[in-house]
Amino acid sequence: MQGELFTETLRRSWRTALYWGLALGFISLFTVAFVQDMDALKQYQELFKTMPAGLLAALGMDISREMTPESFINLAVFAQLVMIMPIYGIVAGLSLTSNDEDEGIMDMVLTAPVARWRVIVERFAAFCVFIVLIALLNHLGVWLGGTFLTSLPLDMNKLAVASLSLIPLMIFTAALTALIATLVKRRTVAIGLAVLIVIISYFLDTLGAAATDSIVGALRPLSYFRYYDSANIMFEGVQPLNLLILLGGAALMIAAAVYRWERRDVGL
């Protein structure tokens, strides 16, 4: 029977994804409600004018553009989610193979008449469903806060696009972690490498945005965070090339993880 690993992963892990989505949704709800009206927004805008341009760029703000309610929500909500949501991507990537292998369960899984590639592909598909669920619940919090708890004139279509654009970022992180987990045998090493790469990539993006004329700025395209730019999404919409880079890169890494997993001596 095809798909049993997919459904089993959904059954085992849906609660964790639900808790993640609800927690992020509540955080986003109350963050959106923090600024009640345009007068308060103007006060924040005056405060931001006193801050260094490099720092604002690192936070995802373009001072050449007028601050809008949506750009403030980008700074208050989405700039923080970019640091939080990849954590779930790491959790998802480890759950494909590394967790079961480290706990000695994978030997039992592989004794079933299931092709090895399905362990990664079906579980990865299930976690992609969870990632979409988390993004939707987070946006529900944004929508509730923007609709009922603030008088800011928010464009919910722009905020919805920014929320859903977090999905490719998380999928890329999950695929990256899954590949690392097939390259190294110890879960602790896989966690350390995944976290290190995510941190380096994040700071390469933020520092590169703040110092565009430096060597860090030149290296910024190497950061996959570079291809999730919620500020530009607010003003210009989704960039198809960035979407292709993230999802295409994730697909290539999952293919590489499958190739490696097919040739791994599990449990040794």
In summary, what is this structure?
The protein is an all-alpha fold and 268 residues long. It contains 13 helices and no strands.
Characterize the structure shown:
The chain has 268 residues and is mostly helical. The chain has one domain. The chain is built from 13 helices and no strands. α1 packs antiparallel against α4, α4 runs antiparallel to α7 and α4 packs parallel to α8. The chain is globular, with a radius of gyration of 20 Å. The model has no long low-confidence stretch (mean pLDDT 88).
Spans of at least 5 consecutive residues with low confidence? none
Give the tally of structural domains: 1
**Termini distance?**
29 Å
Total helices: the number is 13
- Can you tell me the overall shape? globular
Number of strands: 0
Percentage of helical residues?
Answer: over 70%
Q: Give me the strand/helix succession.
A: HHHHHHHHHHHHH
Measured by DSSP, the beta-strand proportion falls in under 5%
| Class computed from helices, strands and strand pairing | mainly alpha
Sheet of most strands:
none
Question: What is the CA-based Rg, rounded?
Answer: 20 Å
Write down the overall mean pLDDT. 88
Identify the notable features of this structure and list them briefly.
single chain, 268 residues, mainly alpha, 13 helices, 0% strand, globular
Secondary structure elements and pairings:
Blueprint lengths: L3 H29 L5 H12 L3 H6 L10 H28 L1 H5 L3 H6 L4 H33 L7 H9 L1 H18 L3 H24 L4 H5 L10 H7 L3 H23 L6
Helix pairs in contact: 1-4, 1-7, 4-7, 4-8, 4-9, 4-10, 7-8, 7-9, 7-13, 8-12, 9-10, 9-13
